[in-house]
Amino acid sequence: MAEVAAVVKPKPRPIIRIGLFLISHSLLVSIICCVAGVLTLLLLPVLAKNTYISENALMPGSASPMLSSADASDGHIFLNKIMSIDSISTNTGIEIPEMIGKHIIESGGEVNYHQIQPISDNFHPLQFFLGPDVGIVRENYSCTSYGINTVGIVRAPRGDGKEAIVIVTPYNSVKTTTSEALSLGVAYSVFSLLSRVSWLAKDIIWLAADSRHGEHAAVAAWLRDYYALSRGDLEKNQDMCGASSVLGHELTSVKRNGVSNGFRRAGTMAAALVIKVAERSTGFEKDGLKIYAEASNGQMPNLDLINIVNYLAVHGQGLQVRVEKIWSLLDSWWLYSLGELQELLGKVAKSLNPDWKIGIPASDYVEGCATLASSLYNQALGVPTGPHGAFRDFQVDSITLEFSPRFSSSQRVLFLLHAGRLVEGVIRSVNNLLEKFHQSFFLYLMTSPNRFVSVGIYMIAFALLIAPLPLVAAALFSDASKSKSGKDDVSLEPSHPGESIPTFTAWNWLHTAKTVLIVHLWGAIVTIIPYFLCQFPNSSPLTSLLMWTVSSLVGLFFTCAASGSLSIPRASQLQIREWTLLKAVTVAAAFIGLCLMSVINYATAQIGALLLVPMCLMAVPLRIDVSAKTMKALLHGACNILLVFAGFPPTAFLLLRGALDSFDRVRLDDFWNWTESLRAWNSATYIYICMVHLPCWVLCIRILLHRR
Amino acid sequence: MEDRSTTGSWRNKLGFWKWAIASVLFRLILTYFSKNLNLSSRPEVSTPLTSLRRLAEGYWLKQLSMSPYSGSMYHGSPLLLSILGPLTVKKIGGLSSELLCSLVSVVADFISAILIRATGTSLVRSHLHNWKALGLDKLFKGDEAVPSGDVAALVYLWNPFTIVSCIGFNTSAIENMFVVMSLYGASAGLVPLAAFGWVVSSHLSLYPIVLVIPVVFLLGYGLDAPPRKLFAQSNLKGGEKRSADHAELKSLNDKFSKTNFSWWRVVIFFFWAFVWTSYVLIMCAISMKEYGGLGEMFKRTYGFILAIEDLSPNIGVLWYFFAEVFDFFRNFFLIVFHVNILFMILPLAIRLNHRPCFLAFLYLAVSSMLKSYPSVGDSALYLSLLVLFVNELEEMQFTFFLFCGYVGISLLSPVMHNLWIWRGTGNANFYFATAIGYACFQIILVVESVSAMLNHDRKIRKLCNKV
Hints:
The structure holds 2 protein chains of 2 kinds. By secondary structure, chain A is α/β, with parallel strands linked by helices. Chain A contains 26 helices and 11 strands. Chain A has an 8-stranded mixed beta sheet, sandwiched between helices. A 3-stranded antiparallel beta sheet of chain A has the order 1-11-10. In chain A, helix 3 (26-47) packs antiparallel against helix 17 and helix 12 crosses helix 13. Chain A starts with a helix and ends with a helix. Chain B contains 22 helices and no strands. At the A-B interface, helix 6, helix 17 and helix 20 of A face helix 21 and helix 22 of B.
């Protein structure tokens, strides 16, 4: 056979030769790639670019704000009314919607009320493959407690009613705080102004969302009904809840003024702004503004929306704009020294060639890293950071603006003026749009409010990190085949030239592929176990976690036993180097899983790759290390054990939390609560952990414990 | 995959019937949940040609005495409309109407699997027979060929592509069944069945028309065998050595004569093909009588396939290209793309005329790569036909790479579609990139399988020369 191959085999093409070269040096290449990947990740704050407004039509700040102090004081009166309602002891949660409705009608808008109920969480693990369930209609209504969203609409004098801009102010109708009242005041002053202006080309929807059952739930329920074909009539629900509904009685007074209860719609939404006011004021001299942008599964609004808010807030109203950052990273010494190192390198580069402007001040670098880490973490969680997340599910760009005023109560009018002018400016900009947001980036990470890392740059870090995986898989695979055919050559005596005819060297991976497939199927079972555990509502997190672990172990045992019956007949000689093949297939599976995850949610894939790639690449049976008895081999084995220990999802989570916070407050049931929240928000991260990370971890353990 | 056991023990180990029935049960369970999975709206699963939802629409139009082809909704055969149409509206109990149609698909899949198994069994038999005839059987220890029929049938039944397209509410399972039927008919020598399968499958989806070449070879030369001149050589050698043994010489002469092309069966095939074609056309003409006749049918079905009118995204590469191309180049590129399939036919037929079943696999793979509305059902068919040649392709290269590629692409493609259509953060290029990747993997599969097959033939020649 060897002769046949030698005769037949032509010289391989250049691309194959390059591939062969890389495969033969896979160890070196993988070390270089991994180190380069981690370095690039750490350099991202340096590589970040300044934001710029990409869509010319937006023209932020080109018109002077029209919101006068009279509007602001109107808003203040409105605010006081709400506060006075709130202080009445018999607040049933209807007075405020009624009051808002009355004011909307007075300022010339249309009103309707939308009833929401708490919905039970349902888990859609296949949504990334099949698209969202658009047609969900809740069938069972209970009349126990529901929130009432108040929706006010201004029809645009210059528009055709096909597009709309949404302002959302979440507030708790039962117990309204001052800050919620302030946000309502801001929205009211802007709304009453917009009902008078002549330049409006898109309808304005003001959604005063009742956050009794959670801010996100209220907004999501309204959006679902807005996009459903025929639902959301208050009357219909009232009929179902019986005529005794307090609401029906109370709202009749408003209804007489010409408010219909039919669900009112404006056009498709161009953008949505959620306005909130922070409870505590910041210690800064200026009013602060915090921007939250992360929606479910790491989706971000178009960068232009953040840009105009940032531009108007900084240059128009003089606010201090911030995005979230991980504070504990700010005073980490190693990050600071890394920052100083890159600053030094930047200076050296500048001295060599004055045109090279790389390197940023060390403090900026640390701040950028902290922001970037927070941005990565929030995207990786896949849980929206505010009610704006509900809009992104319908492809509407939206952000939450959280104002943090430094006021005493006497300066409220001034605050209303500033915040109102900012909101007005943003709406005026969005109003100019001819198409929906498309010019700027959708995939980016923020390193500060005016700096960002785009997909083209941050993908480099990820690509470098996972590039070794296919190489190592190919190298291991060719190793396994080679050792196999080498054995053939030994046994191939001249007397039996045909001995090696049906060797099936090309198909010997089938058996290990089966093992890997079965472990991944087990991962799917692990994914759905918590769904059944939730049927016992009264168990503590710790017992749930224990039950999850135990049932997963039982499941692993049973799947392995069941897979024994499905045996693909295999060669006896192959068992010798079986772990090589197993590792090759595991690495390939990890590669596919990470690539897939990087498309669904980049941040999860990046963090997952940091854990998974070294673990998969290092895995070698411990027996080989032990039998080698050299210092290097023992170190290698210890490294392996350490990586596998750190790679187990609960320990990885607890270690990370301990490192960022403090180890005193870390408890085991945090992990259950964390996964539970991921599951409730339909996060892809949860599926990634259970169906990619965990199976690969189990396979790595299997490789480590492999008997020679 | 390599063991030193006989085919019988292989067969016992595999437990064909156990797994076949399990797969049918699995399908039935999934059918029950098909509403939740909503696979019928996936572009990978149902194309404008195969979608049963479109068929239901066509049936509804026909019930209203309108042409089923009006409104560019339905593009399938009028015969399917009469057979499957009533099933799309009928309901059993409270269950949805999709259940009945899915049951038809399950039955069609099962029949295809049985036919593939029968074809594979005869392929293995002829494989062993040929090796014996060439005097190479002593190189084996026992008869150790893998029962490729059983494996291929199980691969067909358990392939996720087949399962998805079976419960995805479309007609590709039925089309595949007719293709397999014609191959089985040709390999078993049942000329009318071969002609029937060929005519109906070509009528349903046009592309199987190229299968006429492998079917004719199958009928003329018989099943897949090593190149014919090897038989002649070994006859000569054998004749010299054992000229005394009269009986053996005679049997060898028989074998030698077998390598001749039997024109008679081919003529019968064409006769039957003519009969079935006229039968199908008459039936179509009857059902299309009030709606524009056969001309309208040809225009709306084959015209729709050839002119690529529907540019909605699918896993092929043509939709993107024809969405981008300028209108005045359109006809030119239509010709170029269709001729692409035809270009491959002749060289492959010349080079591989001694392996007609493998040729059929190649034609199916090539046409599923370049056809205007491909779906995963097409891949399901050619992948299981590939497994029929597992004995010959034992040294195929890049199998692991191809496997990973197919798995990766089939997971990535829906996610890219989600990113483009539902999230709005991607665009058409994202999805098209996976389509290109998929096409590349198919090309590699075809190239590698052909080269593995040719290497196999070379190896046999070498061994023959040694013996």
